[in-house]
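New to this. Please check both lines:
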Amino acid sequence: MLTLDQIVAKLQEIVGPRFVSTNPIDKINYQHTLAYGAYKFLPDVVVRVESDSAGNNPLAKLLAFANENKIPIVAKGGVGMGISSPLKGGLLLDMLGMDKIVEVNPKQQYVIAEGGASVYAIHHALRQHGLMLPNYGTYGPAVVIGAMINKGGIGYGMTRYGWIADMVLGLEVVLANGETLRLGALANQGTTFGPFQKWIHLPDLLGMFTLAAGSLGIISKVCLRAIEGKREWLHDYCYTFRRDQMDGVMESMADLVKGEVVYDIHFVDRWQYHWPMEEGLVDKKNIPDDAWFFLKTMLFARDAEELAYKEKRMRRIYEAHGGVEVKEIAEKAMGAKAQEYGLHGWPDWHVMGPDGWCSSVVRHSGMFAVTSKMYPIAFLKEMYDLDEAAKRDAGLWNAEHSPQHDSYVTRDLAMKEEYFVFYNPYDDEDVGRLRKWMGKVMEFSNQRGVVWTAPTLSTKGPYPYERLKNLYDVVKEIKQTIDPNNILNPGALAP
């Protein structure tokens, strides 16, 4: 078995001394993830992975070395949601140096990028050609595309088009032994036709590497479907409902999805706007006192005729179920300022920044944790009530902890639910409240059969996987076949 010094020396030989660190401060910084500050695992070594101008990178050599010496290895993008924690120590790969946009093809409407490319940079490259990703993530420049695919990937447009993972046409993946695979459309790269579709004359294996948390291979390149799009084609609305109108909320969302009217629906509650209203970022005088649920809605329309048709359908559905339009939220908390920047910016719909709802809440409440799972729209009332009860029991149902919901409505007639809690990660009692709440959420969610957004056994326990019975056994067999030494993010997909 190699010593740490020997491992470091070999890594420096592969990537260069400047890109290898065992500095305790570096390791502490890299252990953190965006949403699971309560789950912290230190790597033994941090390795920065860079690609050159020709797209060459050291991933194959790094994985072959780690595999030969049975060293755990986890790839990390800019920020994460529990996936990129090094549960077993070992090597943590900083993928941000593999950030090239390889190709934008306006005619075939696809983009190819390296696995460490910023989703924000991909959007920017597409906008130069009048294109956009159908699913528009709003997480600023930090999130990278490889990580988005590893956890499915969410964003505005999920109601109409699905996950970022649904946009994937092809992948290039490096396996544990250093072998490189080209899957889907990228298997056709280099031919006269190029990577025009994901279907090739072999079984589709793209799904093996989506939602896999880097447990089966590390994504080095991605080919994604794009569509024509301009910011001015997206139109913002918000309808509110009282706390006792949950049935109307569920029926409205289901009708809008089935009617294929909307581009995106976001379901949030009043906690999201408590601090923005207190700070004056949103004028509470323009919001009904009894408004509790907020359905932030976007329509995608290229011209006035298309917009008029969709607006009419949307308004009829919301009003039939008791919804009240609140223009204050659409103007202040969604897209009005973003549109001032036109094609140059597309800021994050006021999620981040000094006047964004997230920044406002963080100023008052601290760091946040979030659960992330899927269930049918028809069960929203039951799940919301259970979460409220769990937060009350844990002492979190108050403005200090801003226990808000921020959930996508999906084209599968499901909620891509995110339960938030803001907390002080340096206060043991507060962390204890957080863990108590998360334990209750995991229990009632697993009992009912939710689908978790990304596989991370450390935060969900084995039951969601074990209930899949022999399917989970097959996945573990695949893992054993292509990663026999279990070096790729061990503990995230299978014990």
Summary: Residues 248 and 321 are 5 Å apart (CA to CA). Residues 231-452 form a domain with the Vanillyl-alcohol Oxidase; Chain A, domain 3 fold (CATH 3.40.462.10).
